[in-house]
Amino acid sequence: MLTLHDSMKLQFKQGQELIFIDRPTGFLNQKSSQGQQGLVEVYSEASGKKLLPVIHTNEIDPRMTGAIVFAENESRKLALAQMFKSGQIKQKFWFLTDRRSQEIKYSLAKPHEILLSRIKRSPFYELWEAETSIASALDLRKYLSELGFPILGDTENGGSQFFHLCLHSLELTIPGEPAFFAPPPRIFERLGVLRDRVLSQWLMSVDTRQRLFHFLSHREQTLRLSHSEDLELRWEALGPVLWGAWYKDQDPSALDLERFEFLAHMIGKEFRVRKMLNRGKDPLSRVDWTSDNCPALWVAQEGQMKFHFESERGLSHGLFLDQRNNRDYIYHHAKNLRVLNLFAYTCGFSLAAALGGAKEVVSVDVSREFLDWGKQNFSLNELAPENYEFFKQDSILFLKGTARRKRQFDIIVCDPPSFARNKEGLFSLEKNLEELLRLCWEVLSDDGLLIFSCNLEKWTQEELEKRIQKMKAFKIVKGPPAVLDYEKAHESRLLKSVFLKKL
Ligand SMILES: C[S@@+](CC[C@H](N)C(=O)[O-])C[C@H]1O[C@@H](n2cnc3c(N)ncnc32)[C@H](O)[C@@H]1O
After folding, report:
1. How far apart are CA 227 and CA 385, in angstroms?
2. Which residue's CA is minimally distant from atom 27 of ligand 1?
């Protein structure tokens, strides 16, 4: 069976007892002393292997991009480390600098062998290639600085202030392996963009997802393209549409619109930017900015699942992308089971369950409109909505009725909003968490699984787990990892998610 998000798997290249990865910026290499995950742990989980870093973690700055290697066992690690030390492994680096050079080539033999060639220059910046057998990027940075070429953003070594450390490992050649090539960040190829900090940052965010998932080769798919990088504008790829959620009070300026156009053009999509704040104030005020050919209704995919997207039905477009791994889990575990999806919205979890062969799928939401949207999603995936149940009801009332009738489910998905007002009154997660979980417990089969998620900002994952443990009704079991397009492995998560079994 294909994974639902088969096309959005983490990318790496297998070698002999090693893997190559194309490191995105901003990730630690290895677990920190505070327990924050690093790339070694993330790729170990993705590849099912116990990977080991070859170069000491301190030597690779988390801000760098490009080719690195992890060994699959201790002896391969030692052999590779030895090859690095003895200069048998050749590397090509690209770096940016704002220093002007007279020459276009430098060939240096001592103390390190290094060939420097200027690739191009703009009025403010130069792009250089360094071919070397220096193993440590830290040594290279120091060395370049001594030569009068401090790297842009390398303030520790005399470089100018910049939001990014502009050093990229372009190619890594290990004896006995084909050379591993990691494409340069786009800001290295478009030197004209570098003066525009906002646009450069967006391009780096997109670059990160491309290194992780190669998403540009999957044009029909969905992925968050920037998240914690820019809190005022979050980008998502939704098939043909580049969707931006704009969290500023003021409207986008003419310069902003040019930037939207540029970014959309770079990744071959139409853009739609939606203003998220102050919407209620003036009903006639503008809330959407789009490129000329952007559709208002369109279809995009999560793996093989198709979803209708719409710009005019509510604040959101129809799918919360951060639940991708949880939906995938349901798809793989729902066969012949009875599945209940509370706060179903456009029924993404229900669809995953139905496509995964669930015996019963029940979707509950207070909004008729969202449930109708969910039914359209079923039809889009060639599932007849009549074969499944959709209840327009308050989730707590539904659970009470279901418990009275002694109906049970094997998987329950409960992903409530933090607050909601409906005709039954005010739902507040803080106030209603325990009642909600107790009712879920009642309708959950003995060996059933409850997948509970929330986005309440003031709770951390640990806080949520503590509250649940205090109830002494459930035990927490391991669920799938968080999606990496939202939260970097070492950051705290906005989406809190727990997989629960009855105690
Ligand atoms: C956070 S979204 C749920 C997202 C959904 N689980 C998904 O993955 O797409 C909130 C949804 O809960 C619904 N809702 C809000 N209060 C509700 C209530 N008391 N009972 C049932 N649904 C409710 C809203 O209509 C909305 O569709």
Report:
1. 34
2. 345
Assigned CATH class of 218-310: alpha beta
Taking alpha carbons only, the member of 113, 118, 114, 112 closest to residue 97 is 118
321-502, CATH topology level: Rossmann fold (3.40.50)
Residue 444 and residue 412 in contact, taking contact as beta carbons nearer than 8 Å: yes
Of the candidate ranges 45-54, 66-75, 159-168, the one whose mean pLDDT is the lowest: 45-54
> Is the distance from the beta carbon of residue 307 to the nearest atom of ligand 1 less than 6 Å?
no
Tokens representing 34 are 């505070």
| Ligand 1 pocket residue status of 437, Cβ below 6 Å | no
Q: What is the pTM (predicted TM-score) of this model?
A: 0.94
Q: Report whether residue 370 contacts ligand 1, using a CB cutoff of 6 Å.
A: yes
Ligand 1 atom 9 nearest Cα: 345
Measured in angstroms, how far is the CA atom of residue 177 from the centroid of ligand 1?
Answer: 51
In this prediction, residue 1 carries a pLDDT of 41
Nearest by Cα to 241 from 287, 299, 199:
299
CA 319 to ligand 1: nearest atom: 9
Atom of ligand 1 nearest to the CA of 413: 6
Distance CA(129)–CA(148), nearest Å, equals: 15
CA distance 241 to 268: 9
Neighbours of 35 (CB within 10 A): 7
* Residue among 345, 495, 497 to mutate when testing ligand 1 (max atoms within 8 A of CB): 345
Contact of 295 with 270, CB cutoff 8 Å: yes
Name which residue sits closest to atom 14 of ligand 1, judged by CA: 343
Q: In whole angstroms, how far apart are CA 97 and each of 120, 142, 144, 208?
A: 11, 14, 10, 21
For the chain, the straight-line distance linking the first and the last C-alpha, in angstroms and rounded, comes to 32
* pLDDT band, very low/low/confident/very high, at 323 (cuts 50, 70, 90): very high
pLDDT of amino acid 5: 54
Structure tokens that stand for 30 in this block: 């290895």
Q: Average pLDDT of 99-128?
A: 90
Measured by CA distance, the residue closest to atom 18 of ligand 1 is 394
- The CATH classification of domain 7-184, taken from the options 3.30.70.20, 1.10.760.10, 3.30.2350.10, 3.30.390.10: 3.30.2350.10
422 Cβ contact list (under 8 Å, min separation 6): 366, 394
Element (H, E) at 348: helix 348-355
